[in-house]
Amino acid sequence: MFVRVKNIKGKPYAYLVENEWTPWGSRQRVTKYLGKTHKLERLSENIQPLPKGLSQSIITAVVQELKNHGFIHDEHVLKNETITVNLNEKTVRHKTKPAVLGMNEGYLCDHTLQQLFAFQTEERPDLSAKKLANLTLEAGLKLSQEQFVHLFEQTSGE
Fold it and tell me: Which candidate, 46, 21, 9, places its Cα nearest to that of 142?
């Protein structure tokens, strides 16, 4: 499954989509509405060292990315005008409605946040690394090589 953005009446909305095979070829099926898409502009390139522990490293990476896009951090909540990201609840809201934040090449939303925090390793380390890399990219996180290596090293610790 992946996030797909559709323009409806000139406004971008995000959906969770999966591919399915039919006798006529591959078709995309919408499985869930994710919310209105808000494209964010990167304002800085600050990089923070990630702490020990997978969950704490993910939180720090998300906080880093959102701060680089102009969000203000207050405990486990990040705010930017009308958008709120709650890391305890793993939610992204525009006022009170679900929202999707377009950052880098990905989209941060309830679904991608929950996928990141629910990451489970595979039997083969190379498959785990690929899966983790995909999850971070899909969530719009821009990590340095050192940060990604540290994040991956934390997957065996929890």
Answer: 46
**In angstroms, rounded to a whole number, what is the distance separating the alpha carbons of residues 14 and 6?**
6
Give 74: exposed, middle or buried? Use CB within 10 Å, 0-12, 13-18, 19+.
Answer: exposed
**Residues with Cβ < 8 Å from 57, sequence gap 6 or more?**
50, 51, 150, 151, 154
- For the ranges 16-30, 57-71, 139-153, the lowest mean pLDDT is seen at 16-30
Asked if residues 151 and 132 have their Cβ atoms less than 8 Å apart, the reply is yes
Comparing CA positions, the residue from 104, 93, 101, 100 lying closest to residue 42 is: 104
Q: Is 145 helix (H, G, I), strand (E, B) or coil?
A: helix
Rounded-to-integer distance, Cα 15 and Cα 13, Å: 7
Distance of CA 134 to the CA centre of its chain: 10
Q: Where are the domains of the chain?
A: 37-154
Q: Are 98 and 35 in contact (CB under 8 A)?
A: yes
pLDDT of the residue at 22 = 87
The per-residue pLDDT for range 11-24, each reduced to its tens digit, is 999 999 999 888 99
8 Å CB contact between 110 and 91: yes
Give the 3-state secondary structure of residue 24: coil
